[in-house]
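Quick note —
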Amino acid sequence: MNKLELDMNTIMASTVHDVKNALSLIDDQIRDVMAEVEQASPEGAAYLNRIRLETGRINNDLVHMLGLYRMHHNTFHPSFDDVPVEEVVQDASSRYTESLAALGIELNIEMEDRDCVWYMDPALIESVLANILTNCIRYTKDRVDVQVAERDGGLSIRVIDNGEGYPEKMLNFMGTEDEQGDVNFQTGSTGLGLFFCYQIASLHRNGKQHGTIKLSNDDQGGASFELWLP
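Predicted structure written out below.
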């Protein structure tokens, strides 16, 4: 690595850190305002919660951008360990406790085995789940389900909402750079989040197998995101 690459890596990390701090301050201030208006105007509190979700989405995108930059420059170093799966799922979902309550969205977590332990980078998998939960809360009607079970010799984590489902084009997403680059400025969909999720899943390997993601529309309506780890 040359000096310029090292400097750019530091600049990227410092910039993301500074913006994340600013977003955290904004989030704290929104929460303070919500506490004052919640009883007088539940609708206003719900609107503020939507703003909080958007600041969270910006935060996630910054983390994704930094992670992808480091992957591209081979400075991204995952930290794998045997970790309790339920703990990772709970840590990701706990970020949205207040927003879920304010927006009237029910979150259900179904664990096939609550004692399940899996080899993964817990921070990375938590960030993947947080990214998907943000989108589910944004588009669902009133419910999000998280289903965790062993399937096909690996660990399956599905996040399902009861919104309108994924657009047809997104159902064929396979995590390639060409697909990631398809920007839709009207919907705000760049594919960056899904591309990041796919890359993180792929880092988890066992022999010739590697993790992957799958998008589908649930039979009963809504979008279904599946993260599969070997």
